[in-house]
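S.,

As promised, the F0G run. Input:
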Amino acid sequence: MNAEEPRAFLCCIEPGCGANYPLSERIYVCSHCGGLLDVEYDFNLSGTSDELKTIFRDRLRANNPLERSGVWRFRELLPFVDDLSRVVTLKEGNTPVYEAPRSADYAGLDALRFKHLGLNPTGSFKDNGMTTGVTQAAVLGATAVACASTGNTSASMSAYAARAGMRAFVFIPAGEVAYGKLSQSLEYGAAVIEIEGNFDDAMRLVRELADETDLYLLNSINPFRLEGQKTIIIEMLEQCEWRVPDWIVLPGGNLGNTAAFGKALREMFDLGFIDRIPRLAVIQAEGAAPFYELFSSTDKSDFRPVEEPSTLATAIRIGNPVSWKKALRSLEWTDGVVERVSEQEIADAKAMIGRDGIGCEPASAATLAGIKRLTASGVIGKSENVIAVLTGNLLKDPDYTVRYHQGELSLEENFANRPRRVAAIKDKIKQLLAL
Ligand code: F0G
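Predicted complex:
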């Protein structure tokens, strides 16, 4: 084997199984035991970690889409594509890290940074994983792709499928997807199927359909998606000049990101890119918190889905997350924690992130609400180095934002910023604004 040909394969994560499969196998779970699959590598890096760090950064100066992509410029750490001409990219990634002093103060921290994945081409972190998922679909010769979604996965998949000239089928819970997201799938030309049920129903159905038909499944149960999502962490550490933070905080829904972040950190530690592993803190919404319940219980194998998940943060309204076993493994590897937050806490935290001039969609704001709780309980220290991941753009769910500021969410109006109506008369305006 030479440095140009790293060996990659699929591997069952179940300790008692560990079956291996070639990448060409079109499977989403282990054929022997039904366990989740990892893409594993015999990494055979073409340089030292320091040399690769320089190469990753230098690629940003290039102009071709592969080098410009904030996923593919790290390709040595996800070497599953032999023929890079197959890559389907929208120049995703390269998303900013912002200082957020007001949010830090709100949460009781000296400082806080946000990595804003909402500044991706379709406005969420899904693009980091969809470029790799759709690329693998192309490599396998798939012509039609499918996903269940609370909105962002479907928006992203629809865009990448359109780029690749594939048909896209998205299955969404009827009436529960924010308009910003629904409008994207429609515009990108996907077939949108509104299921009369919740996300978990849609997920179950699309998995069965993918097993029985030619549809290639692009939910995060697909391990190639998670390879792309690893780059969120790689890029974040690059932006920290490779100085490892104490905590990385993220919202948890279907738990794909939690799975990918743990794998990224483990691999980067094993390969010598970092000398210690930061702790992960996963935040769930109170009404959709099965992973919080599992993590708080003594028997970590006794996962109990939430039958009727509920939260206004519709992106994470999920009761039966497919990646819970990988997520648990991530928390073991990183000495992580899980917290849950209320609707009021999410709404207020979201308004606070706006006051920093940043903004995000509701699910993303669970991070700040969770940090506030974890700081108050002493789990996170005031002076610790904390980075939170904002998963989706403010414009994804404008209804929620306007309703919060108009006091229409049946919550306390702690930071509501109501619009004020006035006659079109200058003096009246002066009076209103006390000018
Ligand atoms: N934040 C946003 C904005 C999301 O869209 C999602 C998931 C999450 C957080 C949770 O991430 O599933 O990796 O734990 N959205 C999926 C979708 C389920 O269909 O768009 P996770």
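Residues 36 and 108 are 38 Å apart (CA to CA). The radius of gyration is 21 Å.

- D.
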